[in-house]
Amino acid sequence: MTMDRNATPGIRTRYKVLYLAGALALTALLCVHVGVVFAMRADPGGAHDNLIFLSGLCAAAGILVLAAQALLMMKRIIPILGRDAARADELAAELERLTVLDPLTRAYNRAKFEEVATRELGHVRRYGPDLSGIIFDVDGLREINQIHGDRAGDRVLADLARGLDAQLRSNDFLFRWHGGKFIVLCPYTDIDKAAVVAEKIHVFAGHKLFGGKIRLSISLGVAQAEEDDTAESFRQRLQSGLTAAKNGGRNQVAVSRPLIPAR
Fold it and tell me: pTM for this one?
């Protein structure tokens, strides 16, 4: 029987003593029973009532000892099995979480974007709530890597993603697309509110020294989902806003508002 490693030394010693005592008791009962059998065989014609009674008593005592041993073992096994099951659930949840996270920044990855965007766009079509998105890219990430090294560039991206937690609401989703490009999905948010969030992100990135010495600028595009959008068409409209911000000189927010048809 494997003892619980989380048990205190005193408890482990107590259980070992009880296991050993039970084993010794069973051994003693077995020896008595064997002696009774030999005594009865040595005197086949004698009166054996007392020996039969003793044999039955040994059998009953043996059953009680075995039951006690079983209860003792189950008392130790059940909590261990429960902890093992809980640990297995934790590991499964962690594995599932790792499959949807970017390993560097711990933001959601591209596959998770497709899943969440498709789900939220379905809500837009069925129920009509607003859904907006923000895409942003670190300006000059290649130059940062060349000057400070790739590892420093990786730390910048990880710090940026971690710092954005304070700028986003609990129901917003942050995804790393690739390189220094990220997407934020903002459910139940119209384009004007999303533009405010984008400006907060812009200010945060521009006022923080990453790694204590690296100052960033980012370009951002903002768009609101339409009922006929797919995850890909919505992302392309976000990308159009980012392209406008880049072409406009970088380090700015570009809001892509839907065109109002002429009357």
Answer: 0.66
